[in-house]
Design a protein that fits this description.
Blueprint lengths: L1 H18 L2 E3 L6 E3 L26 H8 L4 H6 L16 E4 L8 H14 L7 E5 L6 H10 L4 E5 L7 E2 L12 E5 L1 E3 L3 E3 L8 E5 L2 E2 L3 E3 L5 E5 L2 E2 L6 E3 L5 E5 L2 E2 L3 E2 L7 E6 L23 H4 L20 E6 L5 H6 L10 E7 L6 H8 L6 E7 L26 E6 L2 H13 L7 E5 L15
Parallel strand pairs: 3-4, 4-5, 5-7, 6-8, 7-10, 8-11, 9-12, 10-13, 11-14, 12-15, 13-16, 14-17, 15-18, 16-19, 19-20, 20-21, 21-22, 22-23, 23-24
Antiparallel strand pairs: 1-2
Length: 452
Amino acid sequence: MNRGLQLLGKAFACTVQAKGRYLICPYTLQPATMPEKLTNKGNKKLVMADGADHISALPDELLQYLLSFLPSREAVQTCVLSQRWRHQWKYVPALRINDVDSFYSVQQLNKFVHHLLMHRKRTPLYVCELDSFRNGEVAEWYQYAVSCEVEMLQVDTAHSADYCRLPEMAITSNHLTTLEFSGVQLGHISLDFSSCPKLEVLVMRGCKILVQKILSQSVKSLSITQCNFELNTRTHISAPSLISLELADILGWTPALERLPSLSTAFVRLDDRCEDYCLHSYYGDCGDQVSCGKHCTRFYDIHDDDCVLLGGLSNVTNLELITSPKVFIVRKDLLMRPTFSKLKTLLLNVSDADASFGPLVYILRSSPVLEKLTLQLYEEPKAKIETDGSCNLEEQLMASKKLKVVEIKYSKIVVLCRVLQILNTCGVPRKKISIERTELWSFGSHFSFEQT
């Protein structure tokens, strides 16, 4: 009984933290006043002022919603509290297999989930979190969740040494709004979410992506981090409703962004794990198959008049763009002369490896409404790239007339002086420039002041 009370206290604490002093039932949308307090400074035992069991007196729907904050294993354990609680767990609108470390083996985990799904009533799921070890039956659980009209689905197999392979079939759901993959292999012709008209949030973290296209008409927030793009061609991303994009720390070829007319905020970080790099040529076309190999021999893989990244980012309002000096994809895109007519806030890293500071010069030219510019300056003594001289400071350069502030963070005075020269040539008054010296770093040690 004490264990049951502790579980209820834990669920109640989660609910109070999320909702304040009230619990909102997702079915009635009516607030229900909860017990006075949790005592003993965080002790999960629930204490009532009059000693009565007020929680058990709540309607079934509120009890089930309360249990939805617990891992499913703990929710099941409440069945021993009393006859009233015996079957409540079967109707909980959440499936949370997120405590895999509490199982002795993958066999024990699989057995528990098998019986859980067998005895649970097939009621709609608001949220489903699926974690698993290697050889876990997560693909079967995934299909079960979709069949239960799940709204928020998270699949995490990062505990496994290998990528989990999900069924190679398109998802069809009129209820799914949020989908998160972690440590999953996604390998089909495309990730087509056209049959998920309510899907708005898509997250892929540490996944192996073997698809030619990621397609969604409805997704508004897309995050792809630490994923491995292993195809011998670029994965294309088509998401015309996208508002927020995070693309960071990928392995393999940089995905190509198709037109993103609604994009407002983007964070892009490409480090040395990206295969779009060249050790010799400014635009990645040295053709040296000995030292650069395929990175240069198939450097673009799209139509010559298309951009890989910057075309899709051209409508963005707030942009963080951080790239290793070896990665040429941004410099190559600049040859297509994209414009950034809506860009107001920009964070850009600048390295002395690029003697012409080409991306900085070009973006200043092409951002007529830019208001705030943050520059991260660093040196890469072993990554000098020969430039083509296309960014000539003798040309007439004018920064945005709306530019209000330039923040510069630097470690080496040589790089700072060069950047100040560029800003002066662009007509940026010294009074608008704020300079801060930081500890010495290289690209690999510190990427961004906004995200790390």
